[in-house]
Amino acid sequence: MSSNHDPPSKESPSHRFGTLAVHAGQSPEPTTGAIMPPVFQTSTYVQPELGRHTGYEYARVQNPTREALERNVAGLEGGKHGIAFASGLAAIEAIVKLLSAGDHVVSEENTYGGTHRMFTKVLSRLGINFTFVDSRDSDQIRDAMRPETRLVHLETPTNPMMRLCDIQEAASIAHEGDALLCVDNTFASPYNQRPLDLGADLSVHSSTKYLNGHSDIIGGVMALNDDDLSERIHFVRKSSGAVPGPMDCWLCLRGTKTLHLRMEAHNRNGERVARFLQKHPKVEEAHYPGLESHPQHELAARQMKGYSGMVAVEMGSKERAKAFVEGTRLFSLAESLGGVESLIGIPAIMTHASVPPDRRAALGVTDGLVRLSVGIEDPDDLLEDLEGALESV
Prior knowledge:
The chain is 36% helix and 14% strand. By secondary structure, it is an alpha/beta fold. It has 2 domains: 17-256, 3-Layer(aba) Sandwich (Aspartate Aminotransferase, domain 2), CATH 3.40.640.10; 259-391, Aspartate Aminotransferase, domain 1. The strands form 2 sheets. It has a 7-stranded mixed β-sheet with strand order 1-7-6-5-4-2-3, with helices on both faces. It has a 5-stranded mixed β-sheet with strand order 8-9-12-11-10. Helix 1 (17-23) packs antiparallel against helix 2 (64-77) and helix 2 runs parallel beside helix 9. The longest helix is centred in the last third of the chain and has 21 residues, at 259-279. The radius of gyration is 21 Å and the shape is globular.
């Protein structure tokens, strides 16, 4: 949240992405000249006199380290405001908490399993109604809109099927219905895709993933332009308390400084791995927006700068998938994604286990589907690792 106590900053909105990654929202700390923002590890702030403070009262509401991260991510997304949270789910929850009982949300059906669980098992119990659609077809979004629809929530690319939604068209549909458009931009990162530039009202991330990039924090963050909307979400965060700690913010801010360098490596390695797996005789199908065979490759080329390191492949059965994921050495069997190290897993058993089996089957999230988060290791070593694992299938 921008405030009167924001330090002057050296960056300009016209600067290119790499410069913004290093400098956006930051200047040397004024007391000591420290070039890195300090970790303000405090819960409260001393006030000089009763009724007057320095702009900081209590750390749930304001923290300088958190504000530095928020300004930085806002700059990377081309937004005016950034708001950080304790997790990506907390960020999405805060947006839905702007709604009231009886309001309606249209959501992409192939969201992260935790998002689907939160919508259907928690927030729906509070009287908020959800309709899940295949947002690859914009007409499904349009047909699902109601007079009481207040939010359209998308993931693009989706987790784990790598589906895409036309953000610009979805924004037009949402705004015609007087609803907000929120895009979960976690899989793409601001380096590869900027939803606000395409008409979205909110771009949200699990900052645990590509933004931080080092698998050592849990966090969430969003970027937006509307002043009133920013104030309303800040009020929800202050009232519900889902704030990240200053050390996590500092670590994420360290991560965003190299986002442009890491994403170039993720993009290159992801494409090489996807093309290798697509041609391998033991792989039935590969899902990656950078492949010409992807049914929405043209849309991907239009609204994305790169295609990230996320790849999904269909192995045909649970047994074949199990042999594959347990046969790798460089690819670690683990949940999460977006770190510098390569990870592999089976979504139906791991990240999407909370999604009902019939719903998973309808989405194509089979027991034989394997998801890879391709890291920034040497690509030849990664391909050798995958080749060796596939020999055991």
